[in-house]
Write a structure and sequence with these properties.
single chain; about 525 residues; mainly alpha; two-stranded antiparallel sheet; 2 strands; about 60% helix; globular; amino-acid transport; Amino acid transporter transmembrane domain-containing protein
Length: about 525
């Protein structure tokens, strides 16, 4: 393996043509598509291209030629002869450490893939019924797993030797910066920042409920906190935990988040099923007042199912934490971890949706879904320990999920600094960025508590990130043969995903207009 030499005042080696500017590059076997785990210095740097000795020139020239390059080398190896290295990756929290593995991938994918939004899946069945509800949930699961597979394969380019470590990065590289800002920037930022705001609302509200359960209801002598104060308590915990430096460092946090998500999903459907069906439960659909109401009810059900699957905006970021080389590409351990994670996701979501609908039928609360149903229908005949444990698991999961969903925002803020200053972000500034982001989300959660009313509208805009964009990027980058099976599959799914996003956005607008919004700034419930 050739030795990489730090270039400092070295002329570029003569290669038959005059180079206008020095190019910072390294063979892929040396950099292994990775950056240092602990050092925040770039692997290669250039200070000045002039005044170098012949010995240094010879050493540099040797370092630019990988040992495996030979006349007998494969076309892929020759294509990977020189790989450009972005030195800033060694400074940013997503790519600062590349020591990830399949276990870390499974932890992160589980923590980001199972969320509170899955608890309202039984509500979708009230509009779709048993048959179409199960079919829709199955199709959505397979569809999003397929697009996730596409993203994992697109992470590395065998033609250029480049790694796309962020969703927005690969979208811009594929369709251009203008298209990226128009179609991808807002949905991706919303899926990170907006999710963190929602987690503060859910975590704060559940903390208040947990206090009431533990304190014994009306017999508690302690003065309960207001909703805003519980939001603040939750935010403080999330901000303290957010000081962990990079995505790899929160693998343990994601493991805790994954375990707690599995825990509360299992408890909820198990309690609902063991307690039996409610008296007078019905699975018959109520006849809608008009066809418009019926159509938008169906779209709302599709939206609930689509929103239950999340985390695609973090897939490339998770894979970016893994080392990669020509012989051991990162997509192999990443896909292994994803497969394990989504087997567990299926084991959680399908019993939750089917068991919840069986137990409550049309009586399932639309706001809160299973979480509300447990306390509303079984609050008196279920052990307070079980109810308290369920609430605690929801709180811990929300704090853990805040970290992984906030990481792309931390990365984005720090990249602004590193790109302007051309140096790593100091530790104190990194801490300030994360504190600002955490309490900024807290301010939004308190100032606009009715933000959830726009969830359907904004969520419809974000649906293509999961169901459509990966298909179009695959066609653009991989260029499958026209009219081949892969060409038809990706075009069909991509167009369907865009159409679904448009319909869900229209349904969100209709719901906002039809039901209205109770505007109450700075008055959370």
């Amino acid at each position: 393996m050739g030795e990489v030499v730090e270039e400092s005042g070295i002329n570029p080696p003569a290669m038959g043509t005059d180079l206008v500017a020095p190019v910072v590059s390294a063979p892929p076997m040396q950099m292994q598509y990775s950056t240092p785990s602990w050092s925040r210095k770039p692997l290669l740097s250039i200070e000045h291209p002039n005044a170098a000795s012949n010995d240094n020139n010879n050493t540099l020239q040797n370092s630019r030629t990988p040992n495996f390059i030979s006349p007998l080398g494969s076309p892929i190896r020759r294509a990977l002869q020189l790989t450009k290295l972005d030195s800033q990756d060694a400074w940013l929290p997503i790519t600062e450490s590349r020591n990830g593995n399949a276990y870390y991938a499974a932890f992160h994918t589980l923590c980001s893939g199972i969320g509170i939004q899955a608890l309202v899946l039984p509500v979708a069945f009230t509009n779709l019924g048993w048959t179409w509800g199960i079919i829709s949930l199955t199709v959505a699961f397979i569809w999003q797993l397929y697009t996730l597979r596409l993203l994992v394969k697109l992470h590395e380019s065998t033609e250029t030797g480049m790694r796309y470590s962020r969703y927005l990065q690969i979208f811009i590289a594929t369709f251009g910066e203008k298209m990226g800002k128009i179609f991808a920037l807002f949905p991706i930022m919303y899926l990170s920042g907006g999710t963190c705001v929602a987690l503060i609302i859910v975590g704060g509200s559940t903390s208040k409920l947990f206090f009431q359960i533990v304190c014994g209801g009306h017999g508690c002598s302690a003065k309960p906190l207001a909703s805003v104060e519980w939001y603040l308590v939750f935010t403080c915990a999330a901000v303290v935990l957010s000081q962990l430096p990079n995505l790899n460092s929160i693998a343990g946090v994601s493991l805790v988040g994954a375990i707690t998500a599995i825990g509360y999903c299992t408890i909820m459907w198990f309690v609902s099923v063991t307690e039996g069906r409610l008296d007078g439960v019905s699975y018959d659909r109520v006849k809608p007042e008009s066809n418009i109401v019926w159509i938008f009810g169906i779209l709302n059900a599709f939206g609930i199912i689509a929103f239950a699957f999340r985390g695609h905006n973090l897939t490339l970021e998770i894979q970016a934490t893994m080392p990669s080389s020509e012989t051991k590409p990162s997509h192999i351990p990443m896909w292994r971890g994803v497969q394990v994670a989504y087997v567990i996701v299926a084991v959680c979501l399908f019993p939750l949706a089917i068991g919840g609908y069986w137990a409550y039928g049309r009586k399932i609360p639309e706001n809160g879904g299973m979480l509300t149903a447990i306390y509303a229908y079984h609050g008196r005949d279920t052990s307070p320990a079980v109810l308290g444990l369920t609430s605690l698991l929801v709180i811990v999961n929300a704090v853990s999920s805040f970290q992984i969903y906030g990481m792309p925002m931390f990365d984005h803020m720090e990249s602004k600094y590193t790109s302007r200053k051309n140096m790593p972000c100091p530790w104190w500034l990194r801490a300030v960025f994360r504190v600002m982001f955490g309490y900024g989300c807290f301010f939004v959660a308190v100032a606009i508590p009715f933000l959830g009313s726009f969830a359907g509208l904004i969520g419809g805009i974000a649906v293509p990130v999961t169901f459509a964009y990966p298909c179009f990027m695959w066609i653009k980058i991989k260029k499958p043969k026209k009219y081949s099976i892969m060409w038809w599959i990706n075009w069909g799914l991509g167009v369907s995903g865009m159409l679904l996003g448009v319909l869900l956005t229209a349904a969100g607008i209709y719901v906002v207009i039809d039901t209205g919004i109770q505007v109450s700034f700075f008055k959370p419930n």
